[in-house]
Amino acid sequence: MTTKVKELGESLMQQQQGLKSCEGDSIKVFVRVRPLTKGSGLTTDGDQGQCLTVTATNTIRLNSKPEPRTFIYDHVADMETSQDSVFSSVAKNIVESCVNGYNGTIFAYGQTGSGKTFTMLGPSDSDNFTDDQRGVIPRSFEYLFYLINGEVERSGNSKSFLCKCSFIEIYNEQIFDLLDSASASLFLRENIKKGVFVEGAVEKFVTSAAEAYQVLKFISMLNYTMILYWQPSNSRKSWA
Ligand SMILES: Nc1ncnc2c1ncn2[C@@H]1O[C@H](COP(=O)(O)OP(=O)(O)OP(=O)(O)O)[C@@H](O)[C@H]1O
Questions:
Q1: To test ligand 1's pocket by mutation, which of 117, 126, 136 has the most ligand atoms within 8 angstroms of CB?
Q2: Model pTM score
Q3: Which residue's CA lies nearest to atom 4 of ligand 1?
Q4: Contact 195, 105 (CB under 8 A)
């Protein structure tokens, strides 16, 4: 337990040092503390002392020895925080900005079993488009199309939106198209009109949250794990 607390402390320290170098608030860091679920090997095994405590909506106290340490983030979700509440604090503003013409990224990072897939997609054994526990991605699809439909209605159909989605995997510093498993690795390009883009990646047109979710389901059926960033050396992966 002590080693675990030390490792966690070092990891939190590194994250905080990274934060200090970020100017302004265009990058926000949210922490979610996952519950100790039965059967996952992540219970406290009789030792009821938890290695950290959420002391405020933006603060974690690490119960380290000899002194506890406090870390501050933009937002901290505790073990009881619902999927809906995580969506509201993490993704809602980004989806709204997106409809107003700004780029946005939501990136989940954490060690294996820490809850990235649960947070981003939902429980592994459910239909994550209808489940109450569905995660940030299906909720973002729904909210995006809710906002789009509202805009179109308010404009008396004079406004229209075009939505396309791509799914790519970055593995060993190569980019692969998950919507075209036959394609060779792709290249990242940049131009004035499009900004940064992946040349040749398949783009699927979608007109509703349900359609966007069907594309996501297609990827899952192919047994891909939607890994957009992968560090094979320590088997950590991230969702974006
Ligand atoms: N906040 C939570 N509430 C309830 N269960 C959770 C929560 N977070 C994670 N879990 C459960 O913990 C287990 C591991 O979570 P998950 O698969 O999301 O981790 P991961 O970070 O994606 O792991 P990996 O990197 O190995 O794929 C799953 O059974 C998931 O349902």
A1: 117
A2: 0.80
A3: 35
A4: no
Instruction: Report pLDDT digits (tens) over 12-41.
Output: 555 555 544 444 578 999 999 998 876 555
Among residues 177, 161, 170, 167, which one has the least CA distance to residue 214?
167
Q: Does the CB atom of residue 134 touch ligand 1 within 6 A? A: no
Residue 63 alpha carbon to ligand 1 centre in Å: 23
Residues 34-85: tens digit of each pLDDT: 988 765 555 544 445 678 899 999 999 998 889 999 999 999 999 999 999 9
Q: Own/partner pairs for 114-118, CB < 8 Å, 24+ apart?
A: 114/34, 115/32, 115/34, 116/237, 116/238, 116/239, 117/225, 117/239, 118/34
**Which structural domains are found in the chain, ordered by start?**
1-80 (no CATH), 82-240 (3.40.850.10)
The complex's ipTM works out to 0.98
How many of the other CB atoms lie within 10 Å of CB of 92?
14
Q: Whose CA is nearest to atom 25 of ligand 1?
A: 112
77 CA to centre of ligand 1 in angstroms: 15
Structure tokens at 91: 């993704």
